[in-house]
């Protein structure tokens, strides 16, 4: 029986069990949630709902609308393989273009009626007797509970902003906001502004605001390696060729994919190779930074690749401006109108912008999703998040994660990872919905053995060569990254079969 026939049989439901409100609930409408919904519908699943806290689709690319927000992966690769776009305006897509792309995908695949916008996911509990998920949501209608056979968490790995825990931060009387919640209504012109953080987000928005503000203090805790950004607009001729010759467009996408994949040799297999790559970043500094003091401040003391490699052409020129100071002395406290550093220097500011990143290794959703015996994901993850291929967690039947633990890739497109996961999830949901109520979960031994080998591999990677990064849980365990080629990740997902899972029929049907 094919997946579609299985689904049709499953949709009829089984005897003696509570009929859930939906077959599937999906949390989030970024790349992951939308891709999941499109593929479920393709398989004949009609009864699903997407829970979205925002007022439009897009996830990361809806929220991160700070000046200069753009993706570090080329547009032709950073898009769904089955929903290509020939007229990307430039090599690296900007946030507005990506958000528009995701909105157009949702419209083209007629997903909007299946989305509950402005609805917060509050938590979910697995009912072991009925083998269904009970999902609590909150919207203008108040608190509600929805039930579903399967729950897909596509809430994003970098969705919950992290604010710095600096003494006195709550006392600050001026304007504050996080990069992912930019206040475009606040006019920065002429203001004294402090930016805390120098990660991927800050290096994009600092150059955009540096010329506008009166004075800018940029607080850097640790420098990052930065390489040039080979960006440019696509010409009309190129866009026409992508549109007229789909084969060429696909080949172009493949070329970008393999070019990026080649970096895995250095990052995972041969960290020593990264030393050669580091030369590119060193030359970039030599070319763009003339002041020896600034050069010393921006040059990292760890091997390139240990933390995410950033790309920018305008970061160094921006922090070299006369109205910008790169402060590397640690922050001691924040006062009502100033930032005070460990050397006692007080710098007055009107506005504090936090470019301080996200809860990447301790996703807050873990605290409110409870599986067997009422144990939460966070309780299972006290020593760091773990899943089987970032998708299935032991003791959490009928739960599927998109962009779960150890699925992050710094070297290529997360959309490739997402599509790979969705291919497995749709296959497993197909099994689950076939033949009446049942539960499906990853075998604990398969789950644990996978994670043991995964950590072994990570231990010899560039990411373990000695640096702090958001890839690591506070225990030191790397929980954010996939240590290998992405085609290998996809291949492993394709190999997941019945023998890896425990499938239990509902009591009343056995
Ligand atoms: P991030 O890379 O985690 O950077 C956070 C920055 O804040 C770091 O410089 C960090 O210093 C600093 N920081 C955090 N807490 C601090 C504190 N208490 N005191 C002082 N400094 C503090 O966050 P992000 O820049 O938002 O980027 C997060 C991720 O989002 C990226 O790595 C990337 O995966 C993704 N992203 C991608 C793009 C893109 O594709 N272009 C753009 C933006 C974001 P330390 O380094 O010392 O911890």
Summed up, what is this model?
The chain has helices at residues 3-11, 31-42, 60-63, 95-108, 202-209, 236-244, 246-261, 264-269, 274-288, 292-298, 315-319, 377-380, 414-433, 444-459, 486-495, and strands at residues 22-27, 48-51, 115-116, 120-127, 132-139, 142-153, 175-178, 192-196, 215-219, 226-227, 310-311, 324-327, 331-334, 338-341, 346-348, 351-354, 369-370, 399-401, 438-442, 501-505.
Low-confidence stretches: 1-15
Give the amount of beta strand, in percent: 15-25%
Shape: globular
How would you characterize the largest beta sheet?
8 strands, mixed
| Ions, cofactors and other bound molecules | NADP nicotinamide-adenine-dinucleotide phosphate
User: What's the CATH topology name of the domain at 7-57 and 111-155 and 363-438 and 485-499?
Assistant: FAD/NAD(P)-binding domain
The CATH class of the domain at 7-57 and 111-155 and 363-438 and 485-499 turns out to be Alpha Beta
Average pLDDT over all residues: 94
Estimated structural class: alpha/beta
Number of strands: 20
Assign the CATH superfamily of the domain at 7-57 and 111-155 and 363-438 and 485-499.
FAD/NAD(P)-binding domain
Q: What is the helix content?
A: 25-40%
Distance between the termini: 20 Å
Oligomer category: single chain
Which radius of gyration do the C-alpha atoms yield?
A: 24 Å
**Under the CATH scheme, which architecture of the domain at 7-57 and 111-155 and 363-438 and 485-499 would be assigned?**
3-Layer(bba) Sandwich
Q: Helix tally?
A: 15
GO molecular function: flavin adenine dinucleotide binding; N,N-dimethylaniline monooxygenase activity; NADP binding
InterPro entries: FAD-bind_Monooxygenase_sf, FAD/NAD-bd_sf, Flavin_mOase-like
Protein name: Cyclohexanone monooxygenase
Organism: Hydrocarboniphaga effusa AP103
């Amino acid at each position: 029986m094919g997946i579609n026939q299985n689904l049709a049989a499953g949709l009829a439901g089984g005897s003696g069990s509570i009929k859930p409100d939906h077959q599937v609930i999906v949390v989030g409408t970024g790349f992951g949630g939308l891709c999941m919904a499109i593929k479920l519908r393709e398989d004949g699943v009609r009864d699903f709902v997407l829970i979205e806290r925002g007022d439009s689709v897009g996830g990361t690319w809806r929220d991160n609308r700070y000046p200069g927000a753009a993706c570090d992966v080329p547009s032709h690769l950073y898009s769904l393989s089955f929903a290509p776009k020939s007229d990307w305006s430039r090599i690296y897509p900007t946030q507005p273009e990506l958000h528009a792309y995701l909105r157009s995908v949702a419209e083209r695949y007629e997903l909007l009626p299946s989305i509950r916008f402005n609805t917060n996911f509050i938590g979910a509990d697995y009912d072991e007797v009925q083998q269904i998920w009970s999902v609590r949501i909150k919207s203008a209608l108040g608190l509600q509970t929805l039930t579903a056979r399967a729950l897909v968490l596509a809430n994003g790995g970098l969705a919950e902003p992290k604010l710095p825990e600096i003494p006195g931060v709550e006392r600050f009387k001026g304007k504050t906001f996080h990069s992912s919640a930019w206040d475009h209504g606040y006019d920065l012109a002429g203001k004294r502004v402090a930016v805390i953080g120098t990660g991927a987000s800050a290096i994009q928005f600092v150059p955009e605001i540096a010329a506008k503000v009166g004075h800018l203090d940029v607080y850097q805790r640790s420098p990052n390696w930065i390489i040039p950004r080979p960006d440019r607009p696509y010409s009309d001729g190129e866009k026409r060729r992508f549109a007229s010759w789909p084969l060429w467009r696909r080949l172009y996408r493949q070329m970008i994919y393999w070019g990026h994949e080649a970096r895995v040799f250095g990052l995972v297999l041969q960290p020593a190779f990264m030393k050669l790559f580091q030369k590119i970043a060193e030359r970039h500094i030599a070319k763009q930074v003339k002041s020896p003091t600034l050069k010393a401040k921006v040059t990292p003391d760890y091997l390139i690749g240990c933390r995410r490699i950033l790309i920018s052409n305008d970061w160094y020129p921006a922090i070299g401006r006369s109205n910008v100071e790169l402060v590397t002395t640690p922050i001691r406290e924040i006062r009502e109108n100033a930032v005070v550093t460990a050397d006692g220097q007080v710098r007055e500011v009107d506005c504090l912008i936090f470019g301080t990143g996200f809860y990447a290794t301790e996703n807050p959703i873990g605290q409110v999703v409870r599986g067997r015996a009422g144990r939460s994901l966070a309780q299972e993850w006290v020593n760091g998040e773990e899943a089987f291929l970032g998708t299935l967690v032991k003791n959490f039947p009928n739960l599927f994660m998109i962009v779960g633990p150890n699925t992050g890739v710094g070297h290529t497109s997360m959309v490739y990872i997402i599509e790979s996961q969705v291919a497995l999830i749709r296959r497993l949901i197909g099994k689950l919905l076939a033949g009446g109520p049942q539960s499906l979960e990853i075998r604990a031994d398969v789950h644990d053995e996978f994670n043991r080998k995964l950590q072994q591999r990570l231990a010899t990677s560039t990411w373990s060569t000695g640096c702090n990064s958001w890839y690591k849980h506070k225990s030191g365990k790397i929980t954010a990254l996939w240590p290998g080629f992405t085609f290998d990740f996809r291949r492993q997902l394709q190999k997941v079969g019945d023998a890896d899972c425990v499938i239990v029929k509902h009591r009343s049907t056995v």
